[in-house]
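Let us practice reading a record.
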Amino acid sequence: MNGSQLTELPDDSEQLRPYVVSLRRATLQADPPSAVGTFSDGFLIRFLRARDFDLPLSLKLLLNYLQWRRESPEISTCLSPSSVFGLLKTSYHAVLPQRDPAGSRVLIYRIGQWNPKDWSAFQVFRVSLMTSEILSRETETQRRGVKAIFDLKGWSLSHALQINPSLARKISSVLSDSFPLKVRGIHLVNEPMFFRPVLAMIRPFLPDKIKQRVHMHGTDFHHSLCDFFSADVLPLEYGGEGLGIEEVCQAWTQELLQSENLLNQIASHPTGDTSKLL
């Protein structure tokens, strides 16, 4: 049975057991013993599915995730949605209610809603991590991955000045090889010319397969987005037939706020593996 077939099996399948045991053993041998006790099956399966049950790649991903959490406490230890409620209520971010035809979750970030005078780039990045932690627990999302639309209308020099090389490296790390989610596509719309230096800063840290999944649509994006997403999935403002962007943003804000306790547990846990706490 190949990796794609294993990914389709339920978490409690006996056929997954040898992979889970092997990954647990390899991780405990590789990671500092004082940093972890053990890992739950569900936690390990996220990383196995993210790499189609390739054990060396799954181990690398999990170790990168643990290292990233240790080395970026300014982001990873604060995942409270209420701490960024002022940003969320501007309709900055949404996860669309419907999956795309391939089964991927579709995320939208409206950069123009972010006021850099009020919110730092680290706080904005935390919103993405909150959503990623929640989605990584969905079995179907583990299998089908995510696609993101970044609406850069309103991008300004004050936004650009918030993105330094250190943060760019952390963002690209999460996008590429430090988080158990398959990134199936990154779509930029309304991107101004002066966004390109920021993209150029992030791009070198991305693996080739992610670079190939970055699509720039410009301001005339309503038709081109529909080449990648069906109309019933996209909000009206993005050329679709779905709910309006304000409505879906507010619905996802409520989802995040209802997950406050879970996200706080993840942030305070040494590895983020809260399965045994639930």
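A brief commentary: The CA atoms of residues 110 and 196 lie 17 Å apart.
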